[in-house]
Design a protein that fits this description.
With 209 residues, the protein is of the alpha/beta class. Helices cover 34% and strands 19% of the residues. α1 crosses α7 and α5 packs parallel to α6. The radius of gyration is 16 Å and the shape is globular. Bound molecules: adenosine-5'-triphosphate and magnesium ion.
Amino acid sequence: MTALIVTGTDTGVGKTVFAAALAGALGAHYWKPVQAGPDEDGGSDALKVAALAGLAPDHILPEAYRLTQPLSPHRAAELDGLEIDPARLVLPETGGPLVVEGAGGVLVPLTRTVLYADLFAAWAAPVVLVARTALGTINHTLLSLEALRARRVPVLGVAFVGDANADNEATIAQLGEVRRLGRLPLLTPLTPEALARAFAAHFTLADFR
Ligand SMILES: Nc1ncnc2c1ncn2[C@@H]1O[C@H](COP(=O)(O)OP(=O)(O)OP(=O)(O)O)[C@@H](O)[C@H]1O
Ligand SMILES: [Mg+2]
């Protein structure tokens, strides 16, 4: 099994949309281990991927935890009267490629002692860091790379989202010593067809295999 972890520099950077494009292109299974609250459209990331990726329904795996509140998982769990057990967050065996989406950014807490980056380190699967192209991204992206590397998490590269910003993208690749995997433009309208076309035009599928 080949798992790829999709994380990001922040919440709302475009992890789910990128993960849908990637999972669709690979014919992968998609798994969001912890869903904390409804997203801005009232649904879940798994439902958004189901709508965007063009995958069979059985390729969207059920979450291990579905929490009520749209908060950091450690707090959302507490408010639901439970504690996330990281031992339950084992990568599912799918017999093929698997795309896994974290919540928020790399140092988001799952519990009061375990962060997402700790989980990524335990999984030892390569991480794609989704980053904005816009102002502020150099700081957020370099900080995220440092946090991942401090835990020896293998970083496949950075997937940018947004309008082209050649200097931001090149500066991150240079100072972060990281591969620029490509850039997903902001799509209007965001349809499965437009997303698949944009991914094919702006990324190289072989980079993810
Ligand atoms: N390439 C894109 N084109 C158009 N809209 C986009 C694109 N990427 C993201 N969006 C929109 O931006 C918003 C946030 O994107 P998304 O849900 O993918 O972020 P996220 O990083 O997964 O957030 P979360 O931390 O909540 O999981 C959504 O409304 C999404 O539809
Ligand atoms: Mg998401």
